[in-house]
Amino acid sequence: MNILCAYNANIDAIYKVDGQKMSEIAEGYKEEIAEKMKDPPGHISSIPDFFAGLFICMRHGTGAEWLIRDKEVFNWLRTNFLKASFMRMGGNMGIMANVLSELGASRVVPNVANPSELQMSFFSERAIYIPDGGEAVSSRDQEILAKHIGDEGELIHFVFDFKQGDSFVFSGNGISVPRENRFIASYDPLNLELHIDEQFRNYALEHINEMDGALISGYHLLREEYPDGSSYKEKLNRSIKQLSEWKKRNKHLHIHAELGHFESEEMANDVFNSLVPVVDNIGLNEDELATLARMNELDAAGILEMDSRAIIETAVSLCKASGQKRLQVHTHEFVLSVSSDTRSEAEQVLESLHFGVDCAATFACYGKLYSREELLQIASSISESKTGKKQMQKIIDYIPPGEYDITRRYSVFRKYRGYSICAVPTRICAEPVATVGLGDTISSAIFLRELELRA
């Protein structure tokens, strides 16, 4: 399978926070930090802004992500914390491209906003190809890639992980962390604008008929307003125009878009409605589905509790109202697909959902993916979610049986309100070593398997 991937890849730098050490570094800014903690700016334009955000999160045990608006502050964070950080691939698209590559896609061509040597070192070496002069070169070819490094430098999301029980004194006040969480300081000016690399743009148009699918994400990074006074709409429209052109040139191209958590509910709804005419499938979690329910005046009760009946009713109503052909909802306990596809594809969808679940469970337990044979063997020993299995039974009880029902291995297929409902429980790893990127893993694995089964 040949697959295009856009739009966001960055570097995650994970730093384990020592509260006392942070307090000592912050001592010289204590008066400014204390004032900003009373009235949080919500973004980072100075060093005191950074410490205010971190200390607020540590005091309450909450998580947050603030954007770095000043490059000098970014350079200060890089100088002080990067060497002691654990670095990895970040960004939904970057993670999904790696999953596709590791699971056996033939050629994965990502839009990389800034293909620096460090950024490229986190890409899979199996099937990642970067556009260069109308062709695509292996992600391992650093000499060719070096000439494409952008002016912004590396795009880094600093993830400051703090642990429960850490305590320290700052500016005469004691802070004790009630629960583990993270504060993210992100410098990512290109991905925030859904930057489309010119080499990627040209390659995609020239080779679109060779492509089987496109996996799209990163819309949640859009901002309502940018420093130059522009809004997210022109960035969004630029992307929609690109996808429309791909579809026009290759009517068989299958496009999956992941939604994400947006700056505002209005923006989330606008992006959703803009994607509907040009993509085949939209993936989202229960939080994102609840947002769309509220914006469309639908009953959101039960969605956040992962009630399968509430999720089905909402997903079907959204599809009917918008014209979206398929919604794929991934939760911690189960994965559910609502689509207007015919029954002949139900078996393929169920197999793909199980494959995605197995990949995500294996990744959660071991932090990496294996060959398919090993992966499926490992996954078979990981227990299926008890809650997920109960929700499968709820679907069976809720939707009257029909002529073409499928119920096996806790798989469920039903026809409801003119739509196909396919659902499977997830597998739960008792002691996960990886939790970040599980949604991206499950969505990209499902997407790849479906492309293979459709071929």
Automatic annotation (TrEMBL):
Q: Which Gene3D superfamilies match?
A: 3.30.1110.20, 3.40.1190.20
Q: Which Pfam families match?
A: ADP_PFK_GK (PF04587)
Its BP terms in the Gene Ontology are:
glycolytic process
Query: Under the GO molecular function aspect, what terms does this record hold?
Result: ADP-specific glucokinase activity; metal ion binding
UniProt KW keywords: Cytoplasm, Glycolysis, Kinase, Magnesium, Metal-binding, Transferase
Q: Which InterPro entries match?
A: ADP_PFK/GK (IPR007666), Ribokinase-like (IPR029056)
- The EC number(s) this enzyme carries: 2.7.1.147
Q: Which NCBIfam families match?
A: PRK14039.1
Q: What is this protein called?
A: ADP-dependent glucokinase
